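Next comes this protein.

***
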Amino acid sequence: MASFTLFNSISGRTGNSMEMPSSLSAEEERPEKSSQPSPLPAGKLDSPKYNEIRLRYQLSLPTLRSLSTIEKAPDRRKVLQTACLAAEFRSFPIRPEEKNFLREINDHTGIPYPITGNATEPWHKVLLLVQIDLLRGGWPNKISSNGRKELLRESCRIYVVLDRVLRCLADILGEREDGRGVTVTLDVLRSVKAKVWEGTDMELLQVDGIGAAKMKRLVDAGVKTIKQLAGLEFYHIERLLSRNPPFGHQMIHQLSGFPLLHLHLDAVNKCTLPQDGIQDSTRSEPRQPWVVRVVLGFGNEIVPTWCKRCPWTTLVIEGDDGRLLWFWRGSVKRMENTKIMFVRLDVKKGESIKATFACEGIVGTLVRFTLTI
């Protein structure tokens, strides 16, 4: 089996798909394994495939060792905290003038994952900064002007490193066939890149021209997502936000590029193979290879673009125990006329598989689909 990767090209096995990608740097598909996820053994840290992952993201061996300790099916908090423990963040020590600022973030801003005690370590600083940014409430006024400028410069570098660390973590979890872990890591990565937590009303803040006050007016009117806002007539937008023409038309034009993703799965038939199935020691019944049709697309009239870019998407298919069955990554350009793939998944009769499809850096594009075989 070739090394697994989510984000970069690699000569991985794609034989389980009847729709072959022309270039794995554009699309990557991941077949299933029967092994269960487990922390990476220390003896494998220097193995070629894990070393390849580490070098791809230009990370240190201590960081690989730290990321590999994450347990099976981690939650958001564990993923974000583990990523912040990367050795590369040690170059961002807490300066004396930042202590009150970080204490204010931790104790008085309502961040979801506060630390225990005082912020003393570099990873505390990274964890708190990321969370206050994702709240979109602005930084507390507990730091000098010069200190704020220096912290802003540092934060740009912090996010560059955090992007690499989260992608590396996703690859590690993928190698361990932890589908739930991959899905959660992609959720955190998407939220960090969008600077908004997935699943919150604040996704409206991704729209140019909408700040906290306008978001509140929309939410109070029952408009809580960008999809809902995009479905309004221009004059309703102007009425809700007390703006004059051509504000509504301009907003509608901007929102026309927000990706409206579609996802559908259906089982075609059971594969006929010489073997009787793949026996899982934790199950009384063997898993059988099933051909599943995967249909991907978007509801926009033209290929969607957001922030002047054509977004990339990821599809993760998990078994009912959270194991990784399939992974695909590709640009929305590949779905212009609907993309159909036929993939082979080793599942048990009656098992429910869960598919998660979303744009990498845009909150609010997430769609889910559950199929019972």
Q: What stands out?
A: The beta strands are 28-30, 261-270, 288-298, 312-318, 324-331, 339-347, 352-359, 367-372. Residues 145-175 form the longest helix (31 residues). Confidence is low (pLDDT under 50) at residues 9-38, 273-278. The two ends are 26 Å apart (CA to CA).
